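hey all, quick one before standup. I had two proteins in the batch that finished overnight and I want to keep them in one place so we stop losing track of which output belongs to which input. First protein below, input sequence then structure tokens straight from the run.
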Amino acid sequence: MFKNKYKKNYLYFEEVKTPFVVILIYIIIALILVFLFVFPGPVKDWLNTPYTRFIATLIVIVDLIFFWSYSQLIIKINDTYLKLSFGIFRKKILLKDVIDVEVKDFDKKNYSGYGFALGKDKSVGFITGTPHGILIKMKPKNVFVSTENPDELKEILESKI
């Protein structure tokens, strides 16, 4: 069922890719910033100080970290917890804390953008751009997870709560 030996330790394992357009935006931002280093042109005076070079380098590094982090969402479930990770952004949910699970469509009005997002309804979202997901109801905050297999994920979670 699973491709490698580490995935077989989970009841459920899914890698949800972020849309190419979102990844392309991070790459373009990094390329623009690197281009400004190589061909400073109108910002030459601004980039001449060590302080601003440090800030610009830091921005490129942060952009690349976000690019790597948001390239895919990994969903793992074992007997005791659900683990969601977007690179450096991770959340571990104990299954005993889950109250209910429901399949929902992605609501663009509630979550702005992709990646790790805070919803207007005070929920936390792990958003990849898939049109469907699950809403995990728990205290203190609900969690919305984009998935390509919402019914399967819901079934597994409901069997464990």
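OK second protein, same deal, sequence then tokens:
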Amino acid sequence: MKRTFAFPVAVTAGLLGGIVAAPAYAAGMTAQTYSSDYDKCMDKSGGITADMLDCASAELSRQDKKLNAAYQTLMRKSTEEEKTALRDSQRGWLAYRTASCKLTMIFGGGGTMDLIAASSCNLDETARRVFFLESLLVE
């Protein structure tokens, strides 16, 4: 079973006032997928929360490695101005991801399903960021 997430291009366009030159990464983000290991793990979890959280944690680790690799490559290839912008962007993104995914727990009441939703939020946001940073490497 392939797990994917959709990038809300229309929402982004609306937030930017409808005048958007679509970045190169936007077209490919309609079907970002996780590793096959994650898919297999989730299939084997049998819907058991602890097992599902373990699967998400392992995939987050894989995505985090990809994120760090893309970030480090960009930093090596960048001018000082670009490095500053990238560093500021990454710090802002980390704050956004933390705050946004925390809302899942706060508004959900902190139950078992909220743990899964918050974990999924963290994973989804990280995978999106990986895709974005990797797209900067090819431009």
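Flagging for whoever picks this up: The beta strands are 4-5, 32-33. Residues 1-27 have pLDDT under 50 and may be disordered.
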